[in-house]
Amino acid sequence: MVQLFKTITLILLLLISCLNANELNEQEIKKLIGRSIIIGFDGLTLTSNLKKNIDKYNLGGVILFDKDYKTKNIKNIKNPQQLKKLTFDIQSYSKYKILISIDQEGGKVSRLNPKNGFSQIPSAKDISTKNIHEAKKEYKKLARNLKQEGINLNFAPVVDLAINPNNKVIVQLERSYSKNPTEVVKYASVFIEEQNRYGIKSVIKHFPGHGSSNTDSHKGFVDITNTWDEKELIPYKQLIKDNKVDFIMTAHVFNKKLDNKYPATLSSKINTNLLRKKLKFKGIIISDDLQMKAITKHYSLRERLKLAINSGVNILLFGNQLEKNDLKTIINTIYDLIEKKEINLSKIIESNKLIKNIIDKKQ
Asked: Residue ranges of the domains in the chain?
């Protein structure tokens, strides 16, 4: 089985490396687009719709939630046994390594928690009161749980600085280790290292910093122009320099000092000029959920997709919690943007190369 996986991966890598945009047909292009999308779904089992999305579009990944954001009903996670079967069935059905992702930060942002039969993991704030040995024990437990449940991508750790004590979405939820960048890097490094030991990819977030904001990007426009501090980039600089980062998540925050027109997720000045060129990040840039009100109130689906891809985002995240966007609509919209020359196909091809190089490494 391992040899078959390696053979398929090698073939896909060779195909992508030789891609000529003029030689690709519509379905091949749509499969390339599909590989650059992570989407949420409703259900405790592998659904027929999910199978179709994998077969027809090479869906890049799924994101799992314990409960529905609006109804509070169980969404994807009932208990450890059910979750393990769900992830096993998804990964077994896919002919390629599909991303099975989750938000498992610890504390209040824990999709795996005692209410559904999992171990309690302390918040970042609580972890910061522990010594490194104790922090390693907690994050080893977290990573081991993810591995046992078949999850291979975790949207954590948070490397936002606890700058604003009135910040409701990061600081007051105890999602930040500290206002001191050195402390943030210290504990985030432990988190990443323990996840690496168990083959879990880490996504550090929320670039270029969400800890100084006064509002929540889930609920509306977030302007950090007058609150953001350049030291919020230090954790990213250091973790990139230490070669510990494969994924960085962008934030839906607006900072006119960095880009006077677009929020970070949609900004080439921030994602390409700052993150890629200045900070020399060579990994995968993933958007925060493209259904958050910070951007849905101001940009149509078509505009969000066009701006995000052109800004340098490699993987588009649709949690399907705040809105419901089906994969077919997303992919058809991107395909039309390519057809109309509003997005260059080379952007999609380049993202697929990155995905192959980083995700398909067998661990």
From this structure: 2-359
